[in-house]
Amino acid sequence: MKIDGTRLWERVQRLGQVGRAAAGGIVRPAYGEAHAEAVALVAGWLRDAGLEPGLDETGNLIAVLEGSEPELGAIALGSHLDSVPHGGAFDGALGVLAGLEAVQTLREHGVTPRRSLAVLGFADEEGNNFGIGVLSAQLWIGEIPPERFGTIRDRDGRGLDAYLAAFDVPGVPRVARPELAAYLELHVEQGPVLDGDGGAAAAVESIVGISRTTVTFTGEANHAGTTPMALRQDALWGAAELALAVRDLGRASDGRAVTTVGVFEVTPGATNVIPGGVRMRVEMRCPDETRMADMRSRVEALAAEAAERNALRVAIDPWHHAPAVPMHPVPLQATQRALVDAGLPERTMPSWAGHDAKVLARAIPVGMLFVPSKGGLSHSPLEDTAAEHCAAGAQALLHAALRLADDDRL
Hints:
CATH architecture of the largest domain: 3-Layer(aba) Sandwich
Shape: elongated
Number of domains: 2
């Protein structure tokens, strides 16, 4: 069975016009007019495929192709329909449309999978309204109960409950959520690896963990002209040493980690005053929790060494750690083998960005497939993925879905 790559591409382009801004890119925040228009458009395509689309209680688009054993949990295929401000046409949208294409291909060939297949279009992944990323996935697995909806507010004080009460798409009824046995998500890589080496697609092995630490060096502010170099307690010297050491940690990881100093605040911040304090934030991302723990310890040790060398005091505050999320072995195996089924080389790589799958993995088995992002660009009006790569990813998604639909290990 071959998916219709032309149909998929035309739908990606058509959906990419919904929320198109005069200043460039797509502006499609969750529960807004453009989001409702996107839901209506995709719902129409789902009906064309012979499915009955609906919205669940938190605004997620759902359509189910019933399997031969519908009492078994369904395999969900999807991603999100919202966008970042002035984003691109592929982030999220491709995963939803590829799920639709896979299911429509099965119907056109008269194939009924053993498990039901559910196409999902999550409402809020980007977190534009409330500053909470992957919100819809959290709502799906019940991490945020309905009684808290009113406490989740936008900048103007409007609650999630008000958004949900007002969100209505004519012709798309409310439906119950299906019970899920697993979730598969096709997504653009949002990085340069596949595009850089000519890869067409890859199975995702894990979604990286993220560790963020604030390091504060304290020295002594003093006159920059009258204080000899040998007598200085320059907080910036220690911070600069640590920033370079953090860079070197990432470089020495053989591509298994990225390290960044994204905040660097110098006080008092005057040209003629020796810095008395520096506050810096270190972020590290890694798909391996053992390596991540080692890097966190190294940062603390390197900060202490830099402080001692420069006669400074140092405070270390590890304020955020989201562990790496490995893909469940059953969907991972299915996505790896699906690449071969689709005529592609088997390939596995980590995801360096978060996705709906990262949250759903806390409740059900998940797997992911990546296709290239041209130039590694994403969250940008210039985001682009070749039509043939979209088709290859959708073809692999179809094969992975069929494998999981027939797998008794779920």
